[in-house]
Amino acid sequence: MGSFLVTLPVKWEVYVKRLADEHDTDVSKVIGGMFEWAFSVSDSKRQFEVWLDKAYPPKGQAEDESMAEGEEASEAEEEAEDGAEEELHEDREYSEDST
Are 63 and 71 in contact (CB under 8 A)? Predict the structure, then answer.
């Protein structure tokens, strides 16, 4: 098993350290046990993966979504400009017709 450096939110760090002390074991064993327990059911794994995909999209997916959003914004901007140009032309034609 590899070792990782993990930073826990303060409230969870205090909680996990207290549990480790109460059970006279190492914090890393408590965290490892927590992962074993949390992911022992395939539904829990899938639920975690869904959350992770939403919170931190997989590599490439976030970039693809960002590019798609940028393209949509560009298209919307172009449509707005086209609409403004059409209105300007209609106003000019109306002004010319009324004189």
Answer: no
